[in-house]
Amino acid sequence: MSTAIEAHDLTKGYGRTVAVDGLSFRVEAGRVTGFVGPNGAGKSTTMRLVLGLDAPDRGDVRIGGRRYRDLRAPLCEVGALLDAGATHPGRRARSHLLWLARSNRLPSRRVDEVLELVGMADAARRRTGGFSLGMAQRLGIAAAMLGDPPILLFDEPINGLDPDGIRWIRAFLRELAAEGRAVLVSSHLMGELEGIADELVVIGRGRLIAQTGVGELLSARSDGRVHVRTPQVTEVMAALAGAGATVTSTSSDELVVTGLEPERIAALVSEHGLRLDELYRERASLEDAFIDLTRDAVEYVAERSGRQ
Amino acid sequence: MSTAALAGVVARAGGPQALRSEWVKFRTVRSTFWSLLLLAGVSILFTSALTGGSSTEGGSPGNRGDNDIVLDSLAGIWFGQIAAAVLAVLAITSEYSTRMIRTTFAANPRRRTVLAAKAVVVTSIVLTVGLATSAACFQVGQWLLREGGFDYEGGYPAVTLADGEALRAVVLSGVYLGLLALFSLGVGAIVRHTAAAITIVLAAVLAPVIAIGFLPENLAEPLEKFSLMGAGLSMQQTFDRLTTSRWSPLRGWRSSPRTRSSRCSWPSGSSGAATPDSASITPAFGMIAA
Lengths: 308, 290
Hints:
The structure holds 2 protein chains of 2 kinds.
Chain A lengths: L2 E12 L2 E12 L3 E5 L6 H8 L7 E6 L14 E4 L11 H11 L4 H10 L15 H13 L5 E5 L7 H16 L3 E6 L2 H4 L5 E6 L2 E7 H9 L3 E4 L3 H10 L3 E6 L2 E5 L3 H10 L6 E4 L4 H9 L3 H10 L1
Parallel strand pairs in A: 3-7, 3-8, 5-6, 6-7
Antiparallel strand pairs in A: 1-2, 1-4, 8-9, 10-12, 10-13, 11-12
Chain B lengths: L14 H13 L2 H23 L16 H5 L3 H21 L3 H7 L3 H37 L16 H28 L2 H19 L4 H10 L1 H9 L12 H7 L28 H6 L1
């Protein structure tokens, strides 16, 4: 696994506001890295800094060890979708990809390939002004894929998509990582990244809150709770407590057990000749983990209390 | 990468690539075609209107009239130029307004190269269409003027593009349009906003023309000398109608604002080009201002 993007002490302010403040993180090849933070946390600014569209006040960011402006053919190193609507509305989809291809000496056939790749071959001759958000996103992804780059950046790619589009893009992002590419996906909703991201970079108010693997984050949070549903609540409770578990009853037919693995619980229940309707390990949602993580980010708290 | 999609392709983002890329951008939006059509159409239309209605009398082969019929036939350019300015402004500001500029600079972070490529593409296309337009204006204008009596018999020997002075005027009118496009692109690149850039360009082109009418001579003269249109007009002139070089179309309008009807007509019995009365000095600009 190699480091595709490495940001070190990135800092960028606009006037009096500090958009990104001493941010350091890494994006690894072969993984989907979720870039998460509340709105206004500095995600888009960071993406612009990675792409050399803004100059940092301090710190730097390297693409495979090099600065963005030193890349000979940027489209073949980093593909980016920053803003799906950022196309000239009067230009046809294919023409939009064609000027991009020309800028990096990529062949025209590649334009048709990426249109095919995102399922837009039929819309190639249409003007982008008439595109739905989903189509615009696909065109943006096609543009990012033009140079077949090992690193991909997607800024809020799921935002505003319909269920079909969401399913498509989730599968697509997983596939890119499976091919060995480094994929950085930003989102302000942690839930969107559930099942996509392997790694998380969580920021708030321009600062790094955590960089962590998704697996570690979830197991650290669920504390091994197991849910049990049975019509014989009292008997099951007694049997499990006798085996050393901590059992609490949450309703007339449900128990929450800690201290025992599900396999052991199932064995104990059947040993006692009792009935079991349902048994599952509690999985913390990424959303909950995210809220825990960002609770201290002042902006987020302010936003929440503002709504109440 | 793991895929072989670009096997054998030597990708590169340099100057030649920027040129080809900007050319694709320029030719794939409809506004380019329509603006260039407007540039040619409006120019020829106004040249036709201005030259078609004019007539002269009283001249004779031996008594050369003092109207600059080359300048007159190119007057339509002053109307068509707005299309060239708008086209060039939009070539850059539309990238900022759609935020597509980020994609542009991500694809090639060498911004000066990109801007230079855009300037080359926009300037050379406007220059080409501008040259064709000014040649067309000249031909149409000469034909209509001849119909109106500006011929050998009326004191106006036929002028063709084979005449050095006429050729210079026609070529430099095209060059003026190309330079105006370059200037407009530059303004667009600086202010990055369509309406603001167009306003600035039009103000830079037209404001001196209007202001000169109100300014005292000592201020009007340098303004006229260094204004865009003043410079452009001096390119179109093919002969001095006064013995001094102080005469100019801009000043002509200033001294005789009500000369529209007498435009292109030279009063009979004139003693020649050296001493015209002021009312006859009626340049194309009189039309513009009126």
